[in-house]
């Protein structure tokens, strides 16, 4: 399957759709999620690799069922004092 991968500049949001899909016409996704997504990277799911940590089977299932796979990255930073 040919896919388009959209990312935001901070790499916090990820949207994967079938190649050529107009993301502004997707149903079931909040329009605010689409804000800041950049030009897509095009891949072939059979030959190219998805971003690290993304499971191909989950992506393909979501794209087939919903028309898209969407994910957000949440990071936590904890400051430690090396003198203790």
From TrEMBL:
Record-given protein name: Uncharacterized protein
Source organism superkingdom: Bacteria
